[in-house]
Amino acid sequence: MEVMRHASTFLRPPPLTPAADGPPLTYALVVLNQRLPWFAPVLWSHATLRVFADGGANRVYDGMPRLFPEQDPLEVRRRYKPDLIRGDMDSIRPKVKEFYSNLGVKIEDVSYDQDTTDLHKCVTFICDFTPKMDKSNLCILVSGALGGRFDHEAGNINVLYKFSNTRIVLLSDDCLIQLLPRTHCHEIHIQSSVVGPHCGLIPLGAPSASTTTTGLQWDLTNTRMSFGGLVSTSNIVREERITVRSDSDLLWTISIKKDI
Ligand SMILES: Nc1ncnc2c1ncn2[C@@H]1O[C@H](COP(=O)(O)OP(=O)(O)OP(=O)(O)O)[C@@H](O)[C@H]1O
Ligand SMILES: Cc1ncc(C[n+]2csc(CCO)c2C)c(N)n1
Fold first, then answer.
1. Does ipTM come in above 0.95?
2. Mutation test of ligand 2: which of 108, 110, 114 has the most ligand atoms closer than 8 Å to its C-beta?
3. In this structure, which ligand is nearest to the CA of 158?
4. pLDDT-derived band of residue 91, with 50, 70 and 90 as boundaries?
5. Is the peptide bond between 131 and the residue preceding it cis, with omega within 30 degrees of 0?
6. CA distance 256 to 211
7. Per-residue DSSP letters for 59-95?
8. Which of 44, 102, 217, 232 could form a disulfide linkage to 201, CB 3.0–4.6 angstroms apart?
9. pTM score above 0.90
């Protein structure tokens, strides 16, 4: 079985010289309508494509100047200009819409589709935009995906399952979540300066008859997991390299450090 490697390098400023281990990932950033995390500028600097989901535009417009209090707010807003604003357009404020429109940003109203979320619409755009051959190196970072309304959180997690062949990382100020597809063995490299030690492995979509891990305080060995039975929450990373193998798609979550 092929090994899929994961690392939270996107939480650290991009290195001046690319790391030597394997082809680098191409990052895209989606900003949702939730408080901008303090590390948003770092995510931005990794991304080559930036999309605001509807009300996400308000969050960058309001939130980025707050992260650079000593700088001119207008300058900051101009610097953090997205490639696209996409969604229902029922949450973006008229003034914010006008600001980005005047900067020449494309604003796409897709409100005719009331069956998919704004995040789904943004991920669809990014996948269509990325050439097929580059998709295996694509990683979509989603800011503001967790915390807040539970129906939104569930919708955001559902996007991980709908696009299970694409690397997508849901982020909040406190933690990140990604899907570990059962089609691969997973090797997670822990950047202990930015993430951990709290972590979890959650069989959200379906129970797992057998999951095996290494590198955790409470490792699983051919263990059964299900809601109503065992779910691995409040686990602790013990090693720099965690391995996970399961017969079921699992959610991996790890805490993000506050004072990186
Ligand atoms: N409280 C929240 N928690 C988690 N994700 C959120 C939250 N609010 C918004 N989002 C995400 O940001 C996206 C854009 O938010 P926005 O408020 O523009 O959506 P919306 O479709 O107008 O929501 P609704 O009409 O249900 O309030 C949503 O599709 C969702 O993915
Ligand atoms: C069974 C079912 N439940 C809820 C919605 C509503 N809905 C789901 S996504 C979306 C767009 C939000 O930006 C809306 C309104 C639906 N269509 N079908």
1. no
2. 114
3. 1
4. very high
5. no
6. 24
7. HHHHHHHHHSTTS-HHHHHHHS--SEEEE--SSS-HH
8. 232
9. yes
